[in-house]
Hints:
28% of the residues are buried. By secondary structure, the chain is α+β, with helices and mostly antiparallel strands. Helices cover 59% and strands 7% of the residues. The model has no long low-confidence stretch (mean pLDDT 86). Helix 3 (41-50) packs across helix 4 (57-90). The longest helix is centred in the first third of the chain and has 34 residues, at 57-90.
Amino acid sequence: MKELEQYLRIFASAVNGKVPLIDEPIDLDKLYRFTGSHSISATVAPVLLKSDIKLDRSQWLKWKEIFYKNYRRTLLYDDERKMIFSAFEDNQISFIPLKAVVLNRLYPVYGSREFADNDILVGSDVLDKLEPIMSAFGYEFIPVSITVHYIFHKEPMYNFEIHHRLFPDRKEFRLFNEYFQKRFDNLRHSSECELSFGNEDNYIYLLAHAYKHNLESGTGLRTLSDIYLYRKKIKTDKEYLDRTLKELEIYEFAKELENLSEKLFATDAPFSFSSLTEEELALLKKISGSGTFGTAEAFIRNKYKRYSGEKKSFRRIHYFKKRLFPDIGLYKKKHPVLYRHKLLHPWFYIYRPIYSVFSDSKSIKNEIKVVSKMKKEKE
């Protein structure tokens, strides 16, 4: 606990652009692994390198390298994005920059927010236009089963997720999808084709996206710093936000993250666990243990709750039945070509378990282990 508190103090200082005061010994290798698991190493590096901590040459180079790699990555993505946006304009494709494109500029040092990709929202009918444009820039279209975005990749490190919708078509995200569908009529024009959400809608999307991750595999510390910096640097209509978050049924979730981010970052004194309530401490421990994209165990646990039936005695049976023999809609998303031939539909149910056993047996064993552990716990 003391070690985690120390790491969080350093991160909190970094998010505010301040050099941390470190008066106790610190294991820099452990700190590096911890920040790496949350994709915040490049955020911490600039202030750590200015601090009084004594780094040997290899440590100094390691922290300096992680920052400059991300700094260079940010520069290259910015240039790449300008080129792609210009092509979208030439081809009359309307688009909205999302997530990292909006959030990166909020951090105290340019290039200090790590990111895996750039996200862009377009209409649902432009894939035929997108492929030749991205291909001309050297991108490969990655055909995956994800139903909300197209993935384009170019070596050595460019990934663009081009969304045609913001959230999966599932009942738990129905309110989000309905809300943003209505908000498309209130978009701001940055250029003829480049559009943007208003300040409030960008923040609502940030929270709704965090809620989605929380329902699936969990979310990490970078989400807290994103929330804190957005609220600190972007002016929003608080009454509108509160009213809308209540309508979207994520008001309590949002307040928990906002309050926790304020206690972690918005303090002149070094952060201390003693400032938190019991509930806040439990939430912070959960987030600190999740890493950037959550954990496999949390993903399985949340999926189990979503898939399993109401009666406890049949939960595992119902869960594994749904996992082995999902609705035909899943096959439509994952195998659209085969789906169109109705005579092949029965083969889906034979193909899925056999393919899964041979292609990903390790994940299957882990899933069975987690579900079995949940049975022994209080459900």
